[in-house]
Amino acid sequence: MNERNFEIHGPVVGSNIGTSGRARAGDVHIGHIKDVSAVLRLLDELREDLNDAKAPTSTIEAVDDLRVEARKPKPSKDVTAHLMDKLADRGLGEQMKDLAKAFDALF
Questions:
Q1: Would 4 be classed as within a structural domain?
Q2: How many structural domains compose the chain?
Q3: What is the maximal distance between C-alpha atoms in the chain?
Q4: What are the CA-CA distances from residue 58 to residues 31, 81, 87 (Å)?
């Protein structure tokens, strides 16, 4: 039988070398990336609809603020809920339901 000696050099998957022990291999996973892209797609569609309808600037700014929040590694439920409440008063109905479901996947 042929025996070979080998070593693994450098960080390996699951290693937390050079991260002060805080980072783990599972911190960012493909599911989270897909969830964020779904939220961003819905926000882009909503913003286009609001631009077409010539919605007030404050409404469009709330959508932009939601976009910023969605891109954070750990979005705040409180900030998101506040912004969603601002938009809910604008009569967006079905779009808000879809957006709320998409944001739930981020938490």
A1: no
A2: 1
A3: 76
A4: 32, 16, 10
Mean pLDDT by 10 residues, the chain (107 residues): 51 49 46 77 90 90 92 88 85 79 81
Which pLDDT does position 67 carry in this prediction? Answer: 92
| Residue 90, domain extent | 30-104
CA–CA separation, 16 and 97 (whole Å): 39
Token couple for 28: 């960012």
Note the pLDDT of residue 100: 85
To the question of pTM greater than 0.85 for the whole model, the response is: no
SS3 assignment for the chain: CCCCCCCCCCCCCCCCCCCCCCCCCCCCCHHHHHHHHHHHHHHHHHHHHHHHCCCCHHHHHHHHHHHHHHHCCCCCHHHHHHHHHHHHCCCCCHHHHHHHHHHHCCC
